[in-house]
Automatic annotation (TrEMBL):
PROSITE patterns: PPR (PS51375). The keyword RNA-binding does not apply. NCBIfam families: PPR (TIGR00756). Keywords: Repeat. This is Pentatricopeptide repeat-containing protein. The keyword Repeat applies. PPR repeats lie at residues 180-214, 215-249, 250-284, 285-319, 320-354, 355-389, 424-458, 459-493, 494-528, 529-563, 564-598, 599-633, 634-668, 669-703, 704-738, 739-773, 774-808. It comes from the Eukaryota.
Length: 833
């Protein structure tokens, strides 16, 4: 096997490679085995019969006679070329080229001849030309075949016949004749420049397979080709194998190899190569440092990124805006706003002028960390520097304002973006999404109208946002109208679109319509996602159809669906709400066996269900299991167990949990306080209950209807009518509407304290609100009037209760029909039946 030649001196060729049976059958070929070398003869002065075999043979003999005098051979060829009708045979050209390549002083003439021959249209196919050159070298004992073929490759490239050059080189490889590295590199470079990257890699791999790895320049070309093709991993493999094969890399090759590795990105290997480069005495360029710093940042390796920045400075390379911006981005990804701002301040101190990208990164970091004041300050600074904001920066700010400050701030910025003409559909969708999530559908509709007026065309996400908003407020008719309008606009609903509608119908309790939407989605060839299946399962569980949810899940499992934690949680929660705790615990065990890790939501559902079914000991076991597994407890988890203890009147355990909640840094919410107040009311400790209420008020935690009702009930039982009345007025002033339980507490309490007129007004208030009083309310009023001796009002209330279709309970019947009533024998007993 032959290797590359680094100099233009021709090498010995292999003589056993070419099967020339088809060539030897041609009559004009001379056979050195049977004929002696041709004698030197003068070129005839008389015209030659053109195109005949004897003419070609005579021309060959003439050239071969001047084998050691290339100048004379070329002169004779040019004289013949000027003769009318002269035909340049392939063998004639081949012999002349070999003669000219035998002497360094005529190399240039050979190159010129090849360039002229290849650029014409009369030459043979590349493989034929290669075969003739090789055959002539063998037959006439020329030793210049490798160099001639190298020059031939160069001529094809110069003539922009790149594919012919590849064909030529492939034929040479088949014959195990290899050009010098210089000319291989010329072909590979031409392929890369012509974006024939696959062909370049194929050719290079073929050479490597034959043990020929080229030189440093070859590797440089191939690594750049791989980078250009988007295959940095292949580039890294080329570099590694070439180094192992003994190719000595120079600084430029290290540079391009490091850039390739950084695109992987493999910052560890890039750092090793960079260190190796420095140990060899080369100082990496600023671009190389920048590239490696970028790779470190991309992989979250800020320690090495900062070290390289310092090393870069120590090598005399200045930190430019690209490096600084890259470091800022790294800090932002890590959530380190302080570090990002430090780099930004360094930029300003060093006299660098931040650009739009720099501002976008630091403003985005401020927004993600909730520092909207600094974000807006930078935004203002950017505009003062004459840098116009773009939609990406405004998007960061709008999302940040919506999350951390107010709709008003976000709206102002949004209006400014509209004035700048940069508000696009993505910015509109961000604001639409927030408004719809918050249930501000009217504001969202106004924004929609503004969007249409400004010529911004809504997309599928826009319609999804509006549908979500209407579903959130329970207006499924409008949500469905948005869906129909979306399809009329030619926008294709996605799985997410169908999922929004399904969830809305499930929340309204319209299971049948939700399943119709599911069927429509399947008919539209949309494959349900895990999120969609989760919505269906959760919807069934929430309407008390958990067993159906289990059956449906089994069908999905048959299709290789793997349920996640959310689906298991829905089913467990469904069973707990139905009181089927054994089924809930079975699903919990199946969940663990399937390798799905329970979350705090899973355990909270189980604890809540066990507490409600009076299985507090089992609930405590689950509680301790959750803590042993290291699951972080949230307020809801504490709340359900506190509520369980309070309902058992175990206020000691409830208080211990309440204290633990505070110790772990959690803040009690309304539900926790409400349960504790309810528990203290049940053990007649209104002092403790009112103390918790006062604490709620001081901490700004709102009281809900349940809390007010519990406090009012306790105060009325203790006879503190004034405080109870004040709390009731406070509740109404906050817009909290009393329910049937609240009215029952009020009327029972007032009646028991003989405040019958106030009790009657509450009954009238119920009527105005369209509420129907319960049997217990009427019983309390009847008892109160009975105690007052107002039998007429007691019987009137009894008749009113009957008129409303209410059946008196045993207490009412006993009061009205016992022997203490004189002259009441006429009272119809059937009314109490």
């Amino acid at each position: 096997m032959k290797s590359f030649h680094s100099s233009p001196v021709p090498s010995l060729r292999c003589f056993h490679l070419l099967n020339l049976k088809f060539i030897s059958s041609l009559p004009h070929f001379l056979h050195p085995q049977s004929e002696p070398p041709p004698p030197e003869i003068d070129f005839p002065a008389n015209p030659i019969s053109q195109g005949s075999d004897s003419t070609q043979t005579q021309m060959l003999n003439t050239l071969l006679g001047h084998k050691s005098d290339p100048s004379s051979a070329l002169k004779l060829f040019k004289q013949a070329e000027r003769k009318p009708g002269f035909v340049k045979g392939v063998d004639t050209i081949a012999v002349l080229l070999h003669i000219l390549m035998g002497f360094p002083e005529t190399f240039g003439h050979a190159k010129t001849l090849l360039n002229q021959y290849v650029s014409g249209d009369s030459g043979p196919a590349p493989t034929v030309f290669v075969d003739r050159l090789v055959d002539c070298a063998k037959r006439f004992d020329f030793e210049s075949e490798s160099l001639v073929l190298s020059y031939l490759l160069n001529s094809y490239v110069r003539a922009n016949r790149i594919r012919d050059a590849v064909v030529c080189l492939n034929r040479m490889i088949e014959l195990e004749i290899y050009p010098s590295v210089e000319y291989l590199n010329i072909v590979l470079t031409a392929l890369v420049r012509g974006n024939m990257l696959g062909e370049a890699r194929e050719l290079y791999d073929k050479m490597v397979d034959r043990g020929v790895g080229g030189d440093c320049a070859t590797l440089h070309v191939m690594i750049r080709a791989c980078i250009k093709e988007g295959k940095p991993d292949v580039a890294e493999e080329y570099f590694r194998k070439a180094r192992a094969g003994g190719i000595a890399a120079d600084a430029a090759l290290y540079d391009v190899a490091i850039r390739a590795v950084c695109k992987t990105p493999d910052s560890r290997l890039a750092l090793l190569l960079l260190n190796e480069m420095r140990e060899l005495g080369w100082v990496p360029s600023g671009g190389t440092f920048t590239t490696v710093i970028g790779a470190c940042v991309k992989q979250g390796n800020m320690v090495d990124a900062l070290r390289l920045k310092d090393e870069m400075v120590s090598c005399g390379k200045s930190i430019d805006l690209v490096v600084a911006t890259t470091l800022m981005k790294g800090y932002c990804v890590k959530g380190n706003l302080e570090g990002s701002l430090d780099v930004f301040n360094m930029i300003m101190e060093d006299g660098l002028i931040p650009n739009k990208i720099t501002y976008a990164i630091v403003i985005g970091c401020c927004c993600k960390n909730g520092n909207m004041e600094k974000a807006h300050e930078l935004y203002t600074q950017m505009k003062q520097m004459g840098i116009l904001p773009d939609v990406f920066i405004v998007n960061h700010l709008v999302r940040g304002f919506l999350k951390y400050r107010s709709l008003e701030d976000a709206s102002k910025l949004f209006d400014e973006a509209v004035d700048y003409g940069i508000a696009n559909i993505f910015l509109y969708n961000n604001l639409l999404s927030w408004l719809c999530r918050e249930g501000k559908v009217s504001e969202a509709r106004n924004l929609w109208d503004k969007m249409m007026c400004n010529g911004v065309v809504p997309n599928a996400v826009s319609y999804n946002n509006m549908m979500h908003g209407y579903c959130r407020i329970g207006d499924m008719d409008r949500a469905n109208s948005e869906f129909l309008e979306m399809t009329e606009m030619g926008l294709e609903p996605t799985v997410f679109t169908y999922s929004i509608l399904m969830k809305g119908y499930f929340q309204k309790g319209n299971t049948e319509r939700a399943f119709n939407v599911f069927d429509d989605m399947v008919d539209a060839k949309k494959t349900p996602t895990g999120h969609t299946i989760s919505i269906v399962i959760d919807g069934l569980c929430k309407v008390g159809r958990t067993s159906e949810a289990i059956d449906l899940l089994k069908k999905f499992l048959e299709r290789d669906f793997i349920p996640g934690c959310m689906i298991y949680n829905s089913i467990i929660d469904g069973f707990t709400k139905e009181g089927a705790m054994n089924s809930a615990l079975i699903v919990y065990r199946e969940m663990c066996e399937a390798g799905v890790t329970p979350t705090v939501v899973t355990y909270t559902s189980l604890i809540n269900g066990l507490c409600k079914t009076n299985k507090i000991d089992r609930a405590l076991e689950i509680w301790h299991e959750m803590k042993c597994k290291g699951i972080k407890l949230d307020v809801t988890a504490y709340s359900v167990l506190i509520d369980g203890f309070c309902k058992r009147r175990d206020m000691r355990s409830a208080c211990e949990l309440f204290s633990e909640l505070l110790d772990v840094g959690l803040s009690p919410n309304t539900a926790v306080y409400s349960s504790m107040i309810y528990g203290f009311r049940n053990v007649n400790n209104m002092e403790a209950a009112l103390g918790l209420h006062k604490k709620m008020v001081n901490e700004g935690i709102p009281c809900d209807l349940k809390t007010y009702t519990t406090l009012i009930d306790g105060l009325l039982k203790e006879g503190d009518l004034q405080f109870a009345s004040d709390l009731y007025s406070e509740m109404l002033s906050k817009g909290i509407i009393p329910d049937i339980n609240t009215y029952t507490v009020l009327i029972n309490g007032l009646s028991s304290k003989q405040q019958l007129e106030k009790a009657r007004k509450n009954l009238e208030d119920m009527d105005r609100r369209g509420m129907t009083a319960s049997v217990h309310i009427y019983s309390a009023l009847i008892v109160g009037h009975f105690k007052e001796g107002n039998l007429q009002e007691s019987f009137r209330l009894h008749d009113e209760m009957l008129d409303k279709g209410l059946v008196p309970d045993d207490i009412t019947c006993d009061i009205l029909l016992n022997g203490k009533f004189k002259g009441t024998s006429a009272l119809p007993r059937t009314s109490c039946a």
